[in-house]
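Running this now, will post back.
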Amino acid sequence: MNSAIEILLADDDPVLLELLPAQLTAKDLRFTTAETGRATIESIADAEYDVVLLDVDLPDISGLKLLSEIRHSENFPEVIMLTADKSLKSGVDAMKSGAYDYVTKPAEPEEVEAVIRKAAEKHRLVRQNEKLRAAVRRQNASLTVRPIYASSSMKKIFSQAERVSNLDTTLLITGESGTGKDVLARWVHSQSSRGEFPLISVNCGALPENLFESEFFGYEKGAFTGASKQKIGLIEAADGSTLFLDEIGEMPIPMQVKLLHFLENGNFRRVGATSDRKSDVRIIAATNKDLGEEIRSGNFRSDLFYRLNVIAFHIPPLRDRRDDIPALVEFFLEALAQSYNRAGLTISRRANTQLLNHLWQGNIRELKNTLERTVALSEGNTIDEIFGLDEQRDHFEDKGTTAGFELIPLAEVEKRHIIKTLEKVDGQREKAASILGITSRTLYRKLKEYEN
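Update: finished.
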């Protein structure tokens, strides 16, 4: 290592405080000593250390309790516990609580030095990684989100969103799949004081139910079989930033309880940990479900809904804001022209009329995919016909009626569309769910409902 390793030796044995620094005489090892827990805390507050050698039995504060305080300090050093316990129990407990390692007294100076150097190397690597992540955050902050709209309804939404962007209040964004809920969430984050940090995003519908708690809150090494190392969860990773919970309606009830607890007091606990942590996180949630109906059916907690629904935005479907279509088409064509090396790509009035008259049941996502398919299949620089609109319309129309439309409940339309999509992809559920814009778990649940 290029610079001296700063070590704080905390022990109430004056002999050890004098003997160990005298034995470890390498020029790059620099010791500071403390005889009590209080002195240790004050020393860590006043200076930065790479490593703390911490006695398990200090006179005023338990070494394990002090370990927890050190772990919560800014730029905390790696901690090596010193114990006289020959049973190794206190050392193992310390490792579970976050210590880098432990040394049993009396220890050989060579052993202590080797552990110190390894701990210091880890500490400096962690700090270096944090600096790199900070540089990436600054770079990401310069890449602002660009929402595309022209309709009065969307202008109103973004105007209101701008006014609340700097608040820490939770937001709930509702709307059909593909309407741009994630774009609004990212834009609000980019406009806030938290925008210098990257937004942390998770699709609740894509997480297996048994992984929710460990993914959100993290876990300690040895917390369960396979937990070979400590893991930071989404809540902790989003400290100081925003956590976007997409498809919040898919979150299991047990996890809803834990999320509500965190929203109420900002505390959480890693799986396998014995103490709480705090994280300063703003929550933005989104769903394409009717949460009121989900509450009535017992799938969503009303107390969590009211905690999330402090400020709410409902994004209307694309068919109800057709003024946005030309602006979106222009934006997507510009991007597609670069991707497909089609400079000067334009669209005819006839093709524009086709786009304006389509229902867009899949909203912006469907519009984007339709334009990409059309650009890929068309020739020349002028798009005169939109490919695949009739085929998409067939998914939503019943060709068995004279007028091509049947007055049936919306749920039945959804059922027929899901079943027909499954038939088109030869029963491949994951592929069907992707096309439908829903999760595999949602598709499975709906198919089970259709069997009853």
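The longest strand covers residues 5-10. More later if anyone needs it.
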